[in-house]
């Protein structure tokens, strides 16, 4: 038998079962909190066997990251705007909404919190961070090629860092000003500055 997309040997996974598991993990994290979620509970909520879950994922963090990444790609894929500042501001508005109102964003925040003391979760996020990837895409549009004065990894931190700090420290998201943050980012990260 061939390997699945995660490299494990077994039957190809059913898209219906996979989708049910990904929805179940988001729901359970929102309802119970990360620490109370178990692979058994995910399987029960999804209506699949534990064996099905274990065949595709090793940990609840892997399931949660896949669920968050799938939703983040959709929720953070903002249409290009006419100017770089507007493009970045639209992305930052989507990021605030993702982190504060989306179940997938709540799941992602739970993973970030868990990564502070679980090295396996930290390594998992380092390897496949949907926020970093989405930020890099919008930065690449706003400051293509040589227009970016700092390495992309630093640029993504400059762009999303203020939003993460604000949201994760419990401040009121309505007080954020995405247009101001975008202008500040352009001033700091642009080679033309």
Short overview:
The protein has 10 helices and no strands. The protein has 193 residues and is mainly alpha-helical.
State the CATH topology of the largest domain. Tetracycline Repressor, domain 2
Radius of gyration, whole Å: 18 Å
* Broad shape: elongated
Q: Tell me the domain tally.
A: 2
- What percent strand? under 5%
* CATH level 4 superfamily of the largest domain: Tetracycline Repressor, domain 2
Major sheet? none
Topology as H/E string? HHHHHHHHHH
Tell me the distance between the termini: 56 Å
pLDDT under 50 segments (min length 5)? Answer: 1-12
Q: Which structural category fits the helices and strands?
A: mainly alpha
How many DSSP-defined strands? 0
Could you name the CATH class of the largest domain? Mainly Alpha
User: From the 3D coordinates, which CATH architecture of the largest domain would you assign?
Assistant: Orthogonal Bundle
Q: Which features would summarize this protein structure in a list?
A:
Arc Repressor Mutant, subunit A; 193 residues; mainly alpha; 2 domains; 10 helices; Tetracycline Repressor, domain 2; 68% helix
List the helices and strands and how they pair.
Blueprint: H1 15-32, H2 39-46, H3 50-56, H4 60-75, H5 84-101, H6 103-115, H7 119-127, H8 130-142, H9 152-168, H10 178-189
Structural features, described:
The protein has helices at residues 15-32, 39-46, 50-56, 60-75, 84-101, 103-115, 119-127, 130-142, 152-168, 178-189. The chain has 193 residues and is an all-alpha fold.
